Amino acid sequence: MRHRATPVEPVVVELFTAQGCAGCPEANTHVEAVAAEPGVIVLTYAVDYWDYLGWADTFARPEFAQRQRDYRHALRLRNVSTPQVVIDGRRQAPATAEALQAAIDEEGLRRTFPPQIEFRETGDRVGVGSGRPPSGGAEVVAVFYTPGAQTVEIASGDNRGQKVRHVNVVRSVRVLGPWAGRPVLYALPDAPSADQAVAVLVQSRADRRILNGAVLESR
Prior knowledge:
Blueprint: E1 2-4, E2 11-17, H1 24-35, E3 40-46, H2 62-74, E4 84-87, E5 91-93, H3 97-108, E6 117-119, E7 125-128, E8 138-153, E9 163-179, E10 184-187, E11 197-204, E12 210-218
Parallel strand pairs: 2-3
Antiparallel strand pairs: 1-12, 2-4, 4-5, 6-7, 7-10, 8-9, 8-11, 11-12
């Protein structure tokens, strides 16, 4: 049975973190605290550019660092850093409890009749409804992740001896296709397995803002 766990217009919180980053465990904790809030989708991307410090991140993939660089360009930031929190693809927020919650609350008020996202009962397709596409068009992105918390014991590097927790760790990202404002049905390349979930995001190509998102979990 498939479980649809997300309200119609959620706020998407993306954390870029690394097991070898000394300042990241605290940020992971703050992001985990908001993951259970209704109306929030939290996604954790592990980046690999801290591996040179002596610990190879067990969850990192090069494409996650590329996604972060895409946000750096869209948000006109000088560089990338960890930890970094991006809210709805529109803004970055400090990875502190108060600032993160304030940013989520502010973005929750910014609802502009986004395209509806609906998963088919079979779990192998997802429909995106009609709406106003952004300048430059949009794409539909499937983010596959492991829901809930995971703990990794770090054996070397700056966090040596620590047990670092992560929530909703992303495993892969796939672009399902373009969206130009008309209803489209997309095939999901992999239906989530028993311990996996998928977040489908409708995202602007040019400025990377997220128009809407929805989650499908296996039950």
